[in-house]
Amino acid sequence: MKPLEEKLPQEVRRLLKRIGHFTETEETPSYLVGGIVRDLLLGVSNKDLDIVVEGDGIAFAKDLGQKLKREVKTHRQFGTATLFLKDGLKLDIVTARREEYLAPAVLPGVSPGTLRDDLFRRDFTINSLALRIHSEGFEEIVDLFGGEADLQKGLIRILHPKSFIEDPTRIFRAVRLETRYGFQIEPFTLSRLKEALEEKMIERLTPKRRRTELILLFKESDPSKPFHRLNALGVLKHLHPRLSFSKSATRGFDRVHEVLDQWGNSLKPNPFFLRYLCLIQKLSFEDRYALSGSLAMTKKEMRQLMDLRIVQGRIGNLNQLKPSEVYAHLHGLSSEILLFLTITAKEEGSKKRIEKYLMDSRKVRLKITGRDLKTLGIPEGPLYKKILNEVLKSRLDGLLNTKGEELDFAKKNWEKRR
Are 63 and 31 in contact (CB under 8 A)? Predict the structure, then answer.
């Protein structure tokens, strides 16, 4: 077996050889491109299968899907299609295209092009490599822009001087790749990156595109690395003038791994938003809210920021509160806010109180119901909720254990209110 093929999972090798037979029958050249080629050469696992076709990519995908008996989803305006395979694998098929940026920082116009056009539109030379797909496999690397040499030297290099001006999201991608692989942004590319920052190109990106780049950064195996680098380059200041990657944010990122291991399955928090809270924790509420608005945060996330502001202003040292008081402060908060509070708790006692709430208090259920209150002769109405709340408080504080004790307490509480 050829060296590059050995690095692919067996099911992917079989698939690519079938595609090779198909392309030879159809006389439509196809190429494996982008990150998977880069990672194959580096010996890194990557199952993102991207294929460029010199011809009609959508027609190619439909015919291939019919042959493989697999579902195909097309995006005709972009000349792309996705083929859904077994075991969660998917294959993205793209018509070779050229891009034209009509204005800086906006999505480009696309039109059919050659393989060279398609590789030239890539962000960096190490992502501009391609492999011709054959029925017998592939080892024929197409390297038109020196990507293989840069890969060997560990260099991140743009393909043309206006790359960051045309697409400022490449600033974030450059840092992701640099810190993920231990590479270095080469001097000319770094100078053009700084030029794009000086021209405030990040500020021209839509909120949704800025949010997407943050999510990708948070998904890195060690997201602290790219954020330290972005901070050093001054990139974070272009998201918000008072945003930085502080020591507390670093500690928070480290703790996120721990809390996700401990609580991820039971609470199912959104890892992106949890890390985001750690990133912005040093900002004032007003700055947090302004930044979040510029990042297309959802209404739910904006409400959570408000919840966090309220609870942080109230809780103080939870270790000095009764369990029922802790419950009153924490009940109804999202899993992201609760876990963030454990991460940032200044007192070990406060952290343990929040964890006790997560493990026990939030799951407490009364043994009596409104039906039981009715049997006591208590008139139905809003009073039921008040009485049951008082019963719950005493139950949380360890004063009630049995159903009989709850009924007695409820009866006495009602008699006090008569």
Answer: no
Per the structure, how many domains does the chain have? 3
- Please report whether residue 403 resides in a domain: yes
Sign of torsion over alpha carbons 223, 224, 228, 229: negative
pLDDT at residue 268, rounded to an integer = 95
Query: Do 146 and 254 belong together in one domain?
Result: no
221 burial level (CB within 10 Å; 0-12, 13-18, 19+) = exposed
**How far, in Å, CA of 96 to CA of 75, rounded?**
14
Q: What are the tens digits of pLDDT across the range 151-194? A: 999 999 999 999 999 999 999 999 999 999 999 999 999 999 99
Three-class secondary structure of residue 160 per DSSP:
coil
377 and 358 fall within a common domain: no
- Quote the domain boundaries for residue 358: 240-363
Half-sphere exposure of 209 (CA within 13 A, CB side): 16
- CA torsion angle 336 337 342 344 (round to 10): 110
On whether the CB atoms of residues 301 and 292 are closer than 8 A, the answer is: yes
Residue count of the chain:
418
Residue with tokens 């001087």: 161
Tens digits of residue pLDDT in 129-149: 999 888 776 768 999 999 999
